[in-house]
Amino acid sequence: MAKSIDVSDLNIFYGDFLAVEDVTIPIAAKSVTAFIGPSGCGKSTFLRSLNRMHEVIRGARVEGKVLIDGQDLYGADMDPVNVRRMIGMVFQRPNPFPTMSIYDNVLAGQKLNSKRMKKTEADDIVERSLRSAGLWAEVKERLDRPGSGLSGGQQQRLCIARAISVEPEILLMDEPCSALDPISTSVIEDLIHELKTQYTIVIVTHNMQQAARVSDETAFFNLSGVGKPGRLIEHGRTEAIFSNPTDPATEAYIQGRFG
Amino acid sequence: MTSTQAPAPGRAPIRRPGDRIFSGVSLGAGLLILAILAGVAIFLTVQGIPGITASPDEVKSGKSFLPYVWPLVYGTLIAATVAMLIAVPVAIGVALFISHYAPRRLGQTLGYLIDLLAAVPSVVYGLWGIGFLAPHLVPFYAWLDEHLGFLPFFGPASATGRTILTASIVLAVMILPIMTAICREIFLQTPRLHEEAALALGATRWEMARLAIFPYARSGIVSAAMLGLGRALGETLAVAMVLSVGVGTVTANLIGSDNPSTIAANIALGFAEATGKSVNALIASGLVLFVITFLVNFAARSIVDRRKEFSGAN
Question: Could you tell me if residue A167 is inside a domain?
Fold first, then answer.
């Protein structure tokens, strides 16, 4: 479990439009890497290219290499469906399946893998996943209730439970706290700290303090101009990026002077 | 907090004229529907009761009401059920193809063509059924009889192809457009968020449809099916044209020449020549159809409502 990611010379296109240009970044296993940068700079697009979710949009394609523990993510024999089973994702807005109970939501990924399992085994997975997501105590009495009846923060943790129930190698989080209140946010940040002992985590955030709090490494993305592609400006240890950035744009962004 | 205080007793809350007019208009529209429905129900009941109580020698059929109407009810339900069995999966499949699989331009063209199908008058479907479909289905019916004849549905085959199954197929084609159009619109409205949730878990497109689209669209699919079913139950001309004339027999055989008839077709065929109590008997059969439609809709709604809190509307 927990694999490293190695991205080299990655360009991401939507049709003819170059959205993200020339990204090279290594991401270590069992670490938390935060992507920061102004809106529209391509950090979400880049995150989505790490589990091929950007392909949901018609005409999206990439050039370059993404290696997961040395295995080419865009190799001819890689099925995006298998990629996404290996690399889980949590979205900006909590999106539990509204027609399913809390229990079924957690097991949704398991059912896709079409493993036949016994009730006790399923119960174990649900409990383990909800415990890891820090939600077990709050929902154990009402597992058969609809997931959409939970609060926003609980829903987001339910989505995290759903993502980790299939034991992915890597967990991608696209601004997981931007729709949540500060208390729910801090619960999820604590959770990220615990999860990184088992998973490689990549998180996109607009919240600089959050990046500083949760991540080991930080990567700063920026646009070189309106209509130009987003680029990776610099990346490194979080303390280094925040205390002593090499690029003036990074410093300006971190200090809140733009973006 | 002053704005949220309840108004003092005896003082009406301030209401804008626009709000008042709009609520009046929508209330009026709602009442109008109820009034029309009640009007139809009262007419059918008042005119139908003499037909129900008429003695066998007062009506043309020479039977008392229950034995008279039962084969027609049976035929109506069989024709509508078979039509639904054919049309619902096709409608869902086509709608899913248009909304999620087809390239955008192809999907639009296809959607447009299907909407066109809805504009074809039922007499044309009847002509098509009798002039094209029936003769072309004869060899197929013979094949069914030969190979699946052990099933009660495929007994001795009709030589003309004018059978209840042909009528059902025509009905299926007729109800397809409305069901497809509604399903397509609902499928298109599936929140992107839910679709991506499924895809990010490693769902294939079909699994995404099962996880995100169908549950979301459930109540819409039922509504679409109910509209289609309503039309299938009530369709008159096409069925009357396709089926060979007969009183209607109760038989499980879908492809025989001795076919059941439907209530609506029977009314259309019999009304012109009917006199006296026979007219009342026809109207009473209409009342039975009205009640059947009502019950089916009621049942469908209660199925949808049973899982209301899981509908995602909250």
Answer: yes
